[in-house]
Amino acid sequence: MKYPPVHYHDYLGLDKILAAQHLKSDEYGKHAHDEMLFIVVHQTYELWFKQILFELNAVLKTFQQDQIAETEMGRACARLERVVAIQKMIINQIDVLETMTPLDFLDFRDMLYPASGFQSFQWRLIETKLGLRLGDRLSYNQAPFYKSLSEDQQKLMMETLDQDSLFDSVQKWLERTPFLQGENFNFWDSYKEAVTAMFQGDINTVQNNPRLSDEDKKKNIEGLQTALKSFDALFDEKAFEELRKNGQFRLSYKALHAALLIQIHRDQPILQTPFRIIQALLDIDEIMTTWRYRHALMAMRMLGQKIGTGGSSGHKYLAEATAKHKIFGDFFNLTTFFIPRSQVPALPKSVSAKMGFHY
Length: 359
Ligand code: HEM
Fold this sequence. Notes:
Layout lengths: L7 H4 L2 H4 L6 H4 L7 H29 L6 H22 L1 H5 L4 H8 L11 H10 L20 H12 L3 H10 L5 E2 L2 E2 H21 L6 H16 L2 H4 L1 H9 L7 H12 L7 H32 L11 H10 L4 H5 L15 H7 L4
Antiparallel strand pairs: 1-2
Helix pairs in contact: 4-5, 4-8, 4-10, 5-16, 8-9, 10-15, 11-12, 16-17
Bound molecules: protoporphyrin IX containing FE.
The site of protoporphyrin IX containing FE has 24 residues, from helix 4, helix 16 and helix 17.
């Protein structure tokens, strides 16, 4: 044999893992059967968080480069899709934990103060590495979130906050997207023409509709004009920057344009992996929100209006965090600027040849 034999038990460190369930209720001589489930579910979560961080760190390493080799993109994409698969699976662990009733929980809950998921360092790392900034967060007990961590963890968290997150690195990568402008081609000029023509067509249809009263026509046309106006954010950088300052967008103007080009022309072979990356980031954000929502409902179900063991307002804090703690919201809002495929301007041959790998 080329390598010394390995035993299943040792290889997986099972002595340590399987000996790491210490029930507080047993320590106090008041055995609570469901405390074992409570511990195992939390530990399993933390193991999956470890795997998610392992994948995110590898993806960040790829994206934090000034130039990314195409050969790395497929791998980075597959890793993000793995994160999505893990997230989908761990949401379902809430079903298992909810087989514990609130009364069963009360048998040992008082023994856990002030421990709380709020102190999960790995969870905070996931949020921060994805791109949740300090200023995006709700304040908690009038202190920044990292104050609940140990000193060593706080130091590491500060370093992580200082580094480019996945949001920052993806933004830089998007800003480098080629194809937006060529010798005789400006994607946005032709897109603007198509958008204007589309709305003008809709306005004509309303105007020529004999079944609409003059008043209805006026209302419909005003609605279409308002919708057309919303495209200002796309075509007018100054208008966009105003909205960005007010927090309506986080991505830069250039990155937003690139993300839209990738979505619209995703059928082009060269844009397929970038499209999958954007989809994976959308999925990650959406599933984080879904997890937050399910977790908030579980807290409501277990605690009602009681405060959390970590001292927050409980369900209220968690529900507010669900609404606020989002990272890739711009990718969701992009659909505002979609137009039907049939109206999207064709790409010049020189551009589509490059996108389609024609030689
Ligand atoms: C009986 C089940 C659970 C209840 C009642 C519950 C309740 C709460 C409450 C009330 C908070 C807000 C902080 C506080 O005041 O303590 C919180 C935070 C948190 N919990 Fe849970 N939790 C439960 C299970 C879990 C599980 C299984 C996980 C998995 C790791 C988890 C992870 C977290 C995280 C990460 C936070 C911080 C959320 C944030 O600040 O956005 N919780 N939990």
